[in-house]
Amino acid sequence: MTGGQNGIELVDLEAGYGRAAVLHGISVAFDAKSVSVVLGPNGAGKTTLIRSICGAIPAQGSLSVFGEPVNRRRWTPQGMLGLGVAVVPSGRGTFRDLSVDDNLMAGGSLLGRREARTEADRWYDQFPILAERRGQRAGLLSGGEQQILAIARALMPKPRFLLLDEPSLGLAPVVVERVYDVLSTLKETGSFGMLIVEQSVANAAAISEMAYLLDGGQLVKSGPAAEIVEDEEVKRVYLG
Question: If we measure between CA atoms, which residue out of 55, 56, 86 comes closest to residue 71?
Answer without folding.
Answer: 55
